[in-house]
Amino acid sequence: MEGYLTLRLPFGLAPTEATIGGYSHDRSVRALHRVYSVGATFGCEKRCFHRYETGGEPSHSRVASSCQLSPHWHEASGSETQEKMLHSVSPSGRLTIPNDTASRIRASSNSTIETHMNAMNRQVTLVARPIGSPKETDFKLVESAIPEPGPGQVLIQTLYLSVDPYMRGRMNDRTSYAAPFQLGEVMTGGVVGQVVQSNLDKFPKGAYVQGLLGWQDYSLSDGTGIHRISRELAPLSAYLGVLGMPGLTAYFGLLDIGQPKPGETVLISGAAGAVGSIVGQIAKLQGCRVVGVAGTDAKVRLLTEELGFDAAFNYHNEKNYYSKLKELCPQGINVYFDNVGGELTDAAFHYLNVHARVCICGQISQYNLTEPELGPRLLWKLIEKRVKVQGFLVSDYAPRFKEGFTQLAEWLRTGKLQFRESMVNGLENAPKAFMGMLQGQNIGKQVVCVSQSDTAN
Q1: Sign (positive/negative) of CA torsion 75, 78, 79, 81?
Q2: Residue 45: exposed, middle, or buried by beta-carbon count in 10 A (0-12, 13-18, 19+)?
């Protein structure tokens, strides 16, 4: 039984032999806009398909079913490009292709590392508070000297950084659950990086770490708030998504607050995003009927054809949310996991069952408003149906993070969870990635690839 790996090599280069299953591939070849069905990676029957590219925007991921049945095309965002090579990869994940260019790729990777170590530290700062939707002029790319770690410190090179909806609230100068970003300050968020200099035994040089760090090439840390991660379980960027804050948000929000029961109907807004796509899969594992709401037809196909949702619809195509919810949720709604808010949530309230649970995770439709929307006043529905509505922060569950991570990792390892990433290249493009995410341009987790350097090998 074989799967397929599609490569696009714009410079005529081919990667050296790589163990794709363990993600120990050459750093010059990176995974972009990936769909992970990790069963084959871990020796299971389920197939695992990846697309790796050396540069440019992703176009298509070619997916073939097991036993080499007729392949079909899976649409992904980005300009169309010609796929140059199609190689067979065994279930063990071993890919063998010509070695005549391997030295050129190694030289490219080495020069990248050397260049970064001799370069300045690029940083993305906030220079203006957005009015409405953020603009590129609200950010500024600056440079400073790469810092030297002092006693008890490590220097971390950023490999991937996360952009998330909650950051929009921190750009406003108002009191909230997180302190606002200060003007002139480096933006912060989830980062996966590698220790390049260390004065801490717990984090030796070469160790991979994840934590809340700056939108910059290099960060200093005394070890507080960072933890070591392994790329043996999944790609490093996954620790910003399914194995990071979004995955834990989905896990605790649905299971602890939503408390889904077999046979119940779970409705998810923002269902193709980093959190919603995981919520839906976990709900299916609990034996529920799962209905998703997303913003494009491609996202709807992803939910129903790949992630196992029972039904989904594109809210842009619907003039009447009430009738569509009545059609897709004929038995009413037992659990509503809300990432969006607005008119969709108003409509959902009318179909909540007795003792329904509403998990308020996000309200992304409201974040860029300059004036609050005046909507229906529907709290009386909560009395009528005795509904529980609860907002939450994933940080509320910090003492239980190990529990959540362990279960998510097990589902991932056994092929019961899939995840999708949308990846943008370059620290300088982090603001664009952030703005695009707020507009719903991403599928799954939006990640920024900052560096391909890797000193571990």
Answers
A1: negative
A2: exposed
